[in-house]
Amino acid sequence: MIQFRPLTFVIAVTGLFLVGAALADPSLVWIDQHDGGANFVDDGFCLLVDPDGNLIVGGESSDLVGGTDMCIRKLDRTDGHELWDYRYRGYDDKDVAISEMTWDTVGQLLVAGFIRGCVG
Predict the structure, then answer these.
(1) I need a labelling partner for 16 at 20 to 30 A (CA). Which of 9, 25, 26, 62 fits?
(2) How far apart are CA 111 and CA 113, in angstroms?
(3) Banded model confidence at residue 6, pLDDT cuts 50, 70, 90
C-alpha cells in the first residue's frame, strides 16, 4: 500500500537517511519544497537514488489544468536544486497516479502509474 506523505517531508527525511548512512550522527544537509500553488496537490510517494547520488522523487502534482498529473523530479545531491522535472498528464482530464519507480538492467528509469477513476 502506498503511504501518502507531503513532498517536503519525504525530501527532508531522505536527506537524513542519505547523510546518516555515512556519519554516526545524521544531520540534515538540505531540504526541498515543491509547491504547485494555492492548496494544489503536491505529494511525493516514490524515491530512488541515481548512480551519482542524486535523488529522484516520483509523485503527483496538480496545477488545476486537466486533473492531477504524475510528476517526477530529479534533485541534485549536494544542494537539492532541481536538475529536471517531468510531468505526465492524463488524457481527457483524468487524474494520473504513480505506483512504482525502478531501474532496468541497463540503468534506465522505469516509472509505473495508473489512471484513477473510471475510464471509458
Answers:
(1) 62
(2) 7
(3) very low
Amino acid 17 reads F
96-103 and 109-115 beta bridge pairing: antiparallel
66-93 confidence digits (pLDDT tens): 778 899 999 999 998 999 999 888 777 7
Please report, for the chain, the start and end positions of each structural domain, with discontinuous segments joined by +. Answer: 7-115
Note the pLDDT tens digit of each residue in 32-65: 777 666 667 788 889 999 999 999 999 988 877 7
Cβ-based burial of 44 (10 A; exposed 0-12, middle 13-18, buried ≥19): buried
For residue 10, the surrounding DSSP H or E stretch is: helix 7-20
- Looking up cell 537524513, which residue turns up? 16
The reported pLDDT for the residue numbered 12 is 44
